Amino acid sequence: MAIVVKLAVVMADRGVKSKDLAEHIGITEANLSLLKQGKVKGVRFETIDAICDYLDCEPGDIIKREKT
């Protein structure tokens, strides 16, 4: 199994810039970039909630589980 982060796709669909999202959720653009690439080992529910609030989406829209 693999967890795939689709955050970049959702952001692109909505025309959201990394700078704006990072500022809204209170993290650096560098950390947001790592999150978008799926290179983080963990993420707080509070962060996911803030992302979903800003993008008007559900957690399942930005994080998917794919069977390998």
Helices, strands, pairings?
Layout: E1 2-5, H1 7-14, H2 18-25, H3 29-36, H4 45-55, H5 59-62, E2 63-66
Antiparallel strand pairs: 1-2
Helix pairs in contact: 2-3
Distance between the termini: 5 Å
Along the chain, the helix and strand elements come as: EHHHHHE
| CATH class term | Mainly Alpha
Q: Please give the domain count.
A: 1
Q: What CATH architecture do you see?
A: Orthogonal Bundle
Overall mean pLDDT stands at: 94
Biggest sheet descriptor: 2 strands, antiparallel
CATH topology: 434 Repressor (Amino-terminal Domain)
Helix/strand/pairing category:
mainly alpha
Q: Share of helix among residues?
A: 55-70%
Q: Numbering strands along the chain, what is their spatial order in the largest sheet? A: 1-2
CATH superfamily name?
lambda repressor-like DNA-binding domains
The low-pLDDT segments are none
Q: Report the sheet-strand fraction.
A: 5-15%
Number of helices: 5
Computed Rg: 11 Å
What does the overall shape look like? Answer: globular
Question: Count of DSSP E strands?
Answer: 2
Feature tags:
single chain; 68 residues; mainly alpha; 434 Repressor (Amino-terminal Domain); two-stranded antiparallel ribbon; 2 strands; globular
Describe the structure.
- The structure is a single chain.
- This protein has 68 residues and is mainly alpha-helical.
- It has helices spanning 7-14, 18-25, 29-36, 45-55, 59-62; strands at 2-5, 63-66.
- The chain has a single domain (2-66), classed as lambda repressor-like DNA-binding domains (434 Repressor (Amino-terminal Domain), Orthogonal Bundle).
- It contains five helices and two strands.
- The protein is globular.
- It starts with a strand and ends with a strand.
